[in-house]
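Q: Hi! First time doing this. I have a protein sequence and I read that you can turn it into a structure. Is that right? Here it is:
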Amino acid sequence: MILYRQDDARWGKERLGDSKYTMASSGCLVSSIASALSMESGEERTPGTLNAEFCAGDVYDAEGNLQWEQLSALHKYQVEVYQDVSADIIDACLSEGRYPIVRVRMYMLGNIHYVLIVGMQDGEYQCMDPLQDKLMKLSSYGNRVYAIRCVSLDSP
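A: Yes, that's right. Below is the predicted 3D structure, encoded as C-alpha cells:
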C-alpha cells in the first residue's frame, strides 16, 4: 500500500499550476493519482513529481483544478471519467486492478475532497485519504460518493 500525504513537506508548498493553491491545501486529487499509479506500476510516482509534470503539461486551470481532457492529452495515462456513480463501477475498477478516485465531502458535509479506494474489508470500502496516515472507511465520508475517476498508465 502506498499512502501519500498532500501536505508532505517534500511537495506541500508547491503550487497547482499558476493558481494560488498548493499541494498542501488542494492536492488531494494529485496525491490520490500518485498513489494509484505507484501501486499499479510498482514504481514510485510522488505527488511532487506528478505535480511538476501536470504543471508542464498545462493540466490545471487558473483555479488549480485538474482538467481531465488535458491529462488525457499527455498520452501517458488512461483516464476514465464516469458519468454515473455506483458500487458496480467501483467494484469493476477494483476487480481490474485499478484504483477508483472518488469525490467525497470532508466530515460528510464539508469541502469537496478526493480519496482513493484501495479495496474492501469486512464489507466496507477502504480509502487512502491524502490527509490521513492510515486507511479510512468510506463510511467516514457518509458512504456518499459524488464522482468516480480512474487514472492508470497508458499501455506501451
